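Q: Here's a chain of 276 amino acids. Please give me its 3D structure as tokens.
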Amino acid sequence: MRAVSLLRRASNLCNRVITARYGEALGQYFLSEYPKSGGTWLSKMLADVLDVPCPQHAVLPIGFASVMHNHWAYHPRRRRTVYLMRDGRDVMVSSLFHELRHYRQQQSHEHAGEASRLPKIFGKGFDPDKTEPLLPRYIEHNAKHPLGNRVNWAEHVRQWYAPEARPWLVYATYEQLLEDCPGTLSRVVEELTGSPPELWRVDMAVEKYSIARQTGRKAGQEDRSHFIRKGVAGDWKNPFTRAAAEAFDRFAGDELILLGYERDRGWIDAVEETRV
């Protein structure tokens, strides 16, 4: 497993270099996101509509037409790119549950590295079922030591979000996909390619990768053992306490307002001090 992990890292590094120089000539499209923003979902739907592969966990450089899902920093030469955004508070909650799932399972060497982080953050003997008291410390830790990325959510947003300066980028949000998946997917494809997609391809992709089809559950029905835990927006309101809200605001309050998820910092006052 360690050898595979090293090959994936080498492939990722090669892909960054190759795609910045030759991505457009190779017919590649890019779906960039901060981890846990819904990028796996959208990249697979895009690939089906565009009728190209979406390589997952590649151990060799990718040099063919495809949709490449990534968490990379912005690069001006990758023009055919969708940047997918999500409320950073939901990202933190989803990321914590993601790590807690690996902590409970610890099924592979690959996951063991992530699972070993949590006792270092929370101390040995912490209760993984009590997420509310864990969140503030987790948010603070991820602001300085983000999981699966070199920068935290706020820094990633600042790298990417500049719609007036970068009109060639296509922007979409996880919340838009939940509200109107066919419409959002169609818009993304048209802005990305310059042509409207065939609607039957859109409908098939949306159905194929729906939560019900992928998990057998309706959106909102929780399964903490599954990669797709809930598939909803606004779930942060359930585990967030005032301490978690203040921790998030300290490192990402401006970006939350920049993306339009809040008008001002008054949202903090509406969060309860504790959860029963």
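Q: Can you summarize the key feature?
A: Strands lie at 28-33, 66-70, 81-85, 170-173.
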